[in-house]
């Protein structure tokens, strides 16, 4: 399908997914060898998005199994369509009346019905859930098993069976073997260790936060209306924040949100650096304690904090005109007057 990792990377770029060359090699291998690909890493680094973009780039349908605690076979594999079965029985009622005529006890009636094939347990009455749907699809699909670490280990065993054997047994019907081979992508947030047996069957890749250059490219693709230098400033802020011991580091999607917010804010409010900062932090951080820590460090109250602020891009970047988003954010001095007016102008340019 994809001749090389480079072809794959280009196809993904066509779907606005920016992939590291090393990551592209692993994804390419997974597609070429048709091996499941297990992606682990922090929230919001593009694990789920990879599966979606891969499906779009490969012209395949995406079949998604969202995992959660308590996920069972009925949601993952198949269920019987009771409503349809009931309708079928009602249509058979007259015929069943004839069939049961002459029986006097329930036991007799039940025995006679059992001997008869009412056709209720056939593929027609099966509701395939994502795992079976992926195997039964005549056209190969991309099967995304998202957040597999949220399920219990029993679900892993079922997954293993499906992935390893490429088949599913339905007791009433028999065994279905795969009609096509899906590309399987499993994602995990590392909330628990996955079983070695599952890992053994997969190619594994640890997805990490991108370099600032790559993140700027990602955000510019996803929020093309925002001026590149606004994006670069927000990416730099996110990079600094990720170095702090936060409960939750800003994810790429939050950087995208913050960049959009910076652009909008630049348009709507002049010279309010506090507002710029407050909005960016609201988009990037989701815990009060993280916010307090970030403000303390970035404002530079106290020796260590000043150090963080001083060697950060915010201060370094202040050699650029003070009227940038980073200027607005970095320790008041370069920033406090008219800081976001410049951001506003740049944002306006970018939004055109
Ligand atoms: N490499 C990338 N190229 C383009 N966009 C990306 C990339 N990585 C992340 N994104 C953007 O970040 C958003 C979040 O990514 P995604 O939902 O895939 O994260 P995740 O790793 O699955 O996180 P979680 O573990 O919280 O589910 C995507 O919707 C997309 O807009
Ligand atoms: Mg995800």
Mean pLDDT: 82
Task: Report the order of strands and helices.
Answer: HHEHEHEHHEHEHEEEHEHHHHHHHHH
- Tally of individual domains: 3
CATH class placement of the largest domain: Alpha Beta
**Overall shape:** elongated
Bound molecules: adenosine-5'-triphosphate, magnesium ion
Low-confidence regions? 268-272, 301-328, 330-352
Largest sheet: 5 strands, parallel
**Would you count the extended β strands for me?**
9
How do you describe this structure in short?
The chain is an alpha/beta fold and 352 residues long. 54% of the residues lie in helices and 11% in strands. Strand 6 (167-170) and strand 7 form a beta hairpin.
SSE arrangement:
Blueprint: H1 5-14, H2 21-33, E1 37-40, H3 47-58, E2 62-66, H4 73-76, E3 78-80, H5 82-100, H6 106-115, E4 126-128, H7 130-136, E5 142-146, H8 153-165, E6 167-170, E7 174-177, E8 183-188, H9 196-201, E9 203-206, H10 212-222, H11 228-242, H12 252-268, H13 273-284, H14 288-299, H15 303-310, H16 313-316, H17 325-329, H18 339-351
Parallel strand pairs: 1-8, 1-9, 2-5, 5-8
Antiparallel strand pairs: 3-4, 6-7
The protein binds adenosine-5'-triphosphate and magnesium ion.
Organism: Pseudonocardia tropica
Pfam families: AAA_5
Region (Disordered): 314-352
């Amino acid at each position: 399908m994809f001749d090389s990792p480079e072809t794959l990377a280009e196809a993904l770029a066509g779907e606005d997914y920016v992939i590291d060359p090393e990551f592209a090699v692993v994804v390419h291998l997974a597609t070429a060898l048709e091996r499941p690909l297990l992606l682990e890493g922090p929230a919001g680094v593009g694990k789920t998005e990879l599966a979606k973009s891969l499906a779009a780039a490969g012209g395949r349908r995406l079949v998604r199994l969202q995992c959660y605690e308590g996920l069972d076979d009925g949601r993952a594999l198949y269920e019987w369509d009771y409503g349809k079965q009931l309708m079928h029985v009602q249509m058979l009622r007259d015929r069943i009346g004839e069939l049961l005529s002459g029986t006097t006890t329930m036991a007799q009636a039940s025995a006679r019905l059992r001997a008869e094939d009412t056709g209720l347990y056939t593929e027609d009455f099966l509701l395939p859930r994502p795992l079976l749907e992926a195997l039964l699809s005549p056209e190969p699909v991309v099967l995304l098993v998202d957040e597999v670490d949220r399920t219990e280990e029993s679900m892993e065993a079922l997954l293993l069976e499906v992935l390893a054997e490429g088949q599913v047994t339905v007791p009433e019907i028999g065994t279905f073997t795969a009609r096509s081979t899906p590309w399987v992508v499993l994602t995990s947030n590392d909330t628990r260790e996955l079983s070695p047996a599952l890992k053994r069957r997969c190619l594994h890749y640890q997805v990490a936060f991108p370099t600032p250059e790559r993140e700027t490219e990602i955000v510019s693709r996803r929020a093309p209306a925002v001026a590149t230098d606004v994006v670069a400033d927000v990416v730099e802020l996110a990079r600094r924040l990720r170095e702090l011991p936060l409960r939750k580091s800003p994810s790429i999607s939050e950087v995208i949100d913050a960049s959009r917010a910076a652009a909008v804010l630049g348009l709507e409010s002049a010279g309010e650096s506090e507002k710029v900062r407050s909005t960016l932090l609201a988009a990037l951080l989701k815990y009060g304690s993280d916010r307090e820590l970030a403000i303390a460090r970035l404002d530079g109250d106290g020796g260590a904090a000043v150090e963080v602020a001083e060697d950060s891009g915010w201060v370094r970047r202040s050699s650029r005109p003070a009227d940038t988003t980073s200027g607005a954010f970095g320790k008041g001095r370069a920033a406090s007057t008219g800081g976001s007016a410049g951001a506003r102008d740049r944002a306006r340019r970018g939004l055109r």
